[in-house]
Amino acid sequence: MTKSISAQGFTLEKDQSELINQKLKRIDYADSLIVDLILRVKEDKKYYFDTTVNFRWGANAHVTSDDYDFAAGLNKMMDILDQKVKKEKDRVQEKK
């Protein structure tokens, strides 16, 4: 899985970057199924998280969340992303 993390409107601090990488470990179980993950973080009074995951078989998942707190917004996004990845993984395994 190729990860691309970018910040718009601000510079990601080291602890924020580490927090993102730590949270992304939640979807490590699907590492072989995901081609790439693109995460954009934008700060404009709130933190906006915009994530796209591209799967090997051509499907993709798009997840967004926002919050005034960086960690809370990231947690919301990861909860939704984790559910979408599990759902896609289960859907593909049913076809086998």
What keywords describe this structure?
96 residues; 4 strands; elongated; 39% helix; alpha+beta; 4-stranded mixed beta sheet
Instruction: Walk across the major sheet and give the strand order.
Output: 1-2-3-4
Determine the fraction of residues in helical runs and give it as a percent range.
25-40%
- Low-pLDDT segments, ≥5 res: none
Any idea what the shape is? elongated
- Radius of gyration, taken over Cα atoms and rounded to an integer in Å: 14 Å
Compressed to H and E, one letter per element, the order equals EHEEEH
- β-strand amount: 35-45%
Mean pLDDT: 94
Largest sheet: 4 strands, mixed
Note the total helix count.
2
Helix/strand structural class: alpha+beta
What is the CA-CA span between the terminal residues? 22 Å
Number of strands: 4
What does this entry look like structurally?
By secondary structure, the chain is of the alpha+beta class. Strands 1-2-3-4 form a four-stranded mixed sheet, with helices on one face. 39% of the residues lie in helices and 38% in strands. The longest helix has 26 residues, at 70-95.
List strands and helices in order, with pairings:
Layout: E1 2-8, H1 14-24, E2 34-44, E3 46-55, E4 60-67, H2 70-95
Parallel strand pairs: 1-2
Antiparallel strand pairs: 2-3, 3-4
Helix pairs in contact: 1-2
